[in-house]
Amino acid sequence: MKLSLTQAINAGLRRALEDDPKVVLLGEDIGTLGGVFRVTDGLMKDFGSHRVIDTPLAESAIIGTAVGLAYRGFRPVCEIQFDGFIYPGFDQIVSQVAKLHARTRGAVRMPLTIRVPFGGGIGSPEHHSESPEAYFVHTSGLRVISPSNPQDAYTMLRQAIASDDPVLYFEPKRRYHAKDEVMLDAPLSTAPLMGAARVVAAGTDVTLVSYGPLVRTALDAASAAAAEGISIEVIDLRSLSPIDYLPVMESVRRTGRLVISHEAGQTLGLGAEIAATITERCFNYLEVAPVRVTGFDIPYPPSKVEKHHLPDLDRILDGVDRALGRPNSHSGMED
Amino acid sequence: MAHSAMPLHQLVTASGTRVADELLDEFVSDLDDQTLRNLYEDMLIVRRIDAEATALQRQGQLALWPPLLGQEASQIGSVRALEHDDFIFPTYRENGVAYCRGASMGSVLGVWRGVSNSGWDPYELNMATPQIIIGSQTLHATGYAMGLVLDGKESLSLAYFGDGATSQGDVHEAMVFAASFQAPVVFFCQNNHWAISEPVGLQSHVPLAGRAPGYGIPSLQVDGNDVLAVLAATRWAAHRARTGGGPSFIEAVTYRMGAHTTADDPTRYRGVTELEEWGAKDPLTRMRTFLTNAGKLDDEAESAMAAKADAVAAELRAACINFPDPEPLSVFEHVYVDDHPILARQRDHYLAYLSLFEGSSPAAQGGAS
Ligand SMILES: Cc1ncc(C[n+]2csc(CCOP(=O)(O)OP(=O)(O)O)c2C)c(N)n1
Ligand SMILES: [Mg+2]
Question: Which GO terms describe its biological process (chain B) (predicted)?
């Protein structure tokens, strides 16, 4: 069945609500309205307002009460309306959700799923286009994932809800309307693991790693490069915590060149961690230093200039050129 | 209904009749005819600004617009009760307030066109730029008021926020601090009955104004579609603030007649009955009836007002359409006060990158795909 990314998430939520009576949804405007992106469309009608809960406007309370529900054996799925509105709930996530299992020596589990539409490119005002994933990757005790396509969105959401660990589920909102084939009935037992990265385009010259909204851009870059005779291997990380390094290492051992791209700023972003780890673990295979193509270390800019902040096809190809040491890149700037 | 438990202060009824209010009357006893007409004119102009901006959004000239239709009296009555050196902390919806503070139309629209993250200089207007993080600004207003006390200044701050915002922890913490330090801050809540799709009854089982006394903050509920009553109520709170009385809380009971923003479709969550009911309480109609019946508004004055509204609308449209796009490298500006070598390096690299495209493909202009 062809589904958009929002429809795939909707189907995943529906399936989880059907399969497990302990699954409850919490969020602002998720009930009657069906969410500002319509991701939860129809769910309150079908499962009732006791399971699809429009909450008062308070993110700390959404996460904090989900912790209490989890204490009672519920599996809360929280929606944060936009990336930039997660911070009032940050304390509950970092101080409680992430740490309760370890704090209680395993006695208390926090099987929360926290859904966060994230990333830019949608022409929105401030706080609506952020990429805050690194804060959560940096926080031990949380799993962090980001699907790039409808099938993964569906499968990984179900896996996240089934997981006994808390999972931050980052939805690439600018890809919400991208449609693709989704198999709704494939058993979870045969699906790729939630934590597994995937090679989405095979190649031999450069390894290009990305996730979420930029996977599409990375694939487009690979096609464009192929026309010039450059073969790019594209890896969709899917899971940001833990990062599945095996396919990345395997690829880098063949290509010797690594480019990492994400919308989030460069400093201490995922690219920094991946570059460090691959340098540690594949040092002898690298022909050049890993290249990062990322957003700048700036507050998310106004929408008229967001295109300058966001890595696009050209900037990714420039990064590829740098990794290949090609002269037309601005790779000379090694200051 | 959540709002029957407190007296609703009113000076002009929905049908335009002046009624007495023991608390509020004295706060409007000085108003002359011109001042009354000005209040009406402000509302008329602000409604026009709102309609023009909504149209510009439809025409693709603005990315988004949060209509204030129906809330004109709440915004005008409150801001016109303040002095220039009183400091305002608004939300994204207080564009009528911004107009009254002297904001140029361009400075109001920049955020909604996507050319900037704020419009005006807060110190010029004594008004912070629009806050999008719900409730945050109530703490800022409280801190500003604490600063006024420390500086021995006889002035105040006023925070605007919505009914939905009253659920945020920040708003409650602001009230705790304001009471604890007896800060001269006015909490001005526009209860427009909706937080996007959520009705106010989801946020509170008691009148919103009923919460403040629990923090030791005197409060009142005022008809938010009655510009005179809102003006009087805000003067009441401002007087308390200026004379060492500390914080106050006003709940202006009004209604969001339009969508939450131009991206919203309210037909998904509310019926027309409510709209009709509130349409009959329209703030402009009632003020016009009141003024006309009292012989304070004639055709000549009305056409002068209409001409002024036309002029403001024309200014707004021109400012919007003539907005230059920001320079690419502007994204690196003002992140820090002092030099930041890492950011400077990123900027230099991006400049070098852009220059690769000079004279060649327009792809250099970027384009998130
Ligand atoms: C912290 C935070 N959470 C969520 C949002 C998304 N959001 C924007 S406006 C809004 C509703 C606000 O309702 P209310 O406070 O009543 O103000 P109104 O829009 O009615 O003026 C929501 C949930 C936000 N801007 N900030
Ligand atoms: Mg509201």
Answer: branched-chain amino acid catabolic process
Tell me which residue has its CA closest to atom 3 in ligand 1.
Answer: A85
Closest among A147, A126, A247, A235 to A194, alpha carbons compared? A147
Ligand with smallest separation from the Cα of B66:
1
d(CA A318, CA A261): 12
Ligand 1 atom, smallest distance to A88 CA: 1
CA–CA separation, B301 and A41 (whole Å) = 50
**Nearest to B31, CA basis, from B190, B235, B223, B186:** B235
- The ligand with the least distance to the CA atom of B197 is 1
Q: Has residue A149 been placed in a domain?
A: yes
Domain final position from B300, B321, B342: B321
The span from the CA of A211 to the CA of A261, in Å, is 8
Element (H, E) at B236: helix B227-242
The residue whose two tokens read 């690439």 is: A172
Q: What is the ipTM of this complex?
A: 0.96
**Of A44, A163, A49, the residue nearest A113 (C-alpha):** A163
pLDDT digits (tens, 9 = 90+) for B231-274: 999 999 999 999 999 999 999 999 999 999 999 999 999 999 99
The minimal CB distance from B343 to the residues A36, A297, A313 is found for A297
Question: Catalytic pick from A50, A101, A127, A128?
Answer: A128
* Inter-axis angle of helices B169-180 and B136-150, nearest 10: 10
Using DSSP's 3-state secondary structure scheme, residue B194 falls into strand
CA–CA gap between residue B328 and residue B350 (Å, rounded): 9
The single-letter code of the amino acid at A187 is P
How far are the Cα atoms of A189, B161, B169, B227, B311 from residue B94, in angstroms, in the given order? 53, 9, 22, 15, 21
Q: How many domains does chain B have?
A: 2
Q: Do the domain assignments include residue A227?
A: yes
Q: Cβ(B162)–Cβ(B151) under 8 Å?
A: no
> Does the CB atom of residue B164 touch ligand 1 within 6 A?
yes
Looking at the structure of chain A, the number of domains it has is 2
